[in-house]
Amino acid sequence: VAALDAGADDYITKPFSMDELLARLRAAVRRTEDTPLVPETTLVETEHFSLDLLAKKAVRAGRDVRLTPTEWHLLEILVTNPGRLITQRQLLQEVWGVSQSNKTNYLRVYMAQLRRKLETDPSHPRYLITEPGMGYRFEG
To answer: What is the dihedral of CA 64, 67, 71, 74, to 10 degrees?
Structure first.
């Protein structure tokens, strides 16, 4: 029950047959086949920076911006859901996993790094907005 509540799609109890395990794997694959691997929006353009999500390339003021894989993961989640509040818990679970879902300091550190790299005034962000106590949103 705890695993299902934490986001698991299915479970299997021991003993189980290999046929049942393989059937459950095939069902899981079928459920994900309809999910596009490429986000609907692959280019995100703002007044101050642009992102190519397919090429994993960020450009600000005509210069490439180097982002770490973790920074990219966070940024992708936010920019593919423009204007939508993404909770701290959702971001932590998606980027670091269920076991780290209470480590909000991770988010603060990485969001500060993203703001320094992308925002013109990191102390007054225009694009990467904090909703105190709740989460973050991207305003394009």
So the answer is: 30
Dihedral sign of CA atoms 121, 80, 56, 98 in order: positive
Burial 47-68 (b: 16+ CB within 10 A, else e): eebebebeeeebebeeeebebe
According to the model, what pLDDT value does residue 32 have? Answer: 63
Task: Provide the 3-class DSSP secondary structure of residue 13.
Answer: coil
Residues 64-84 have pLDDT tens digits of 999 999 999 999 999 998 999
Catalogue the E-assigned strands of the chain.
Answer: 43-45, 49-52, 57-60, 63-65, 86-87, 128-131, 135-138
Residue-wise pLDDT tens digits, 92-116: 988 888 776 677 888 999 999 999 9
One-letter amino acid of 4: L
Task: Give the CATH number of domain 43-138; options: 1.10.10.10, 1.10.760.10, 3.20.20.80, 3.30.1130.10.
Answer: 1.10.10.10
Q: What is the mean pLDDT of residues 11-24?
A: 89
The domain spans of the chain are 2-33, 43-138
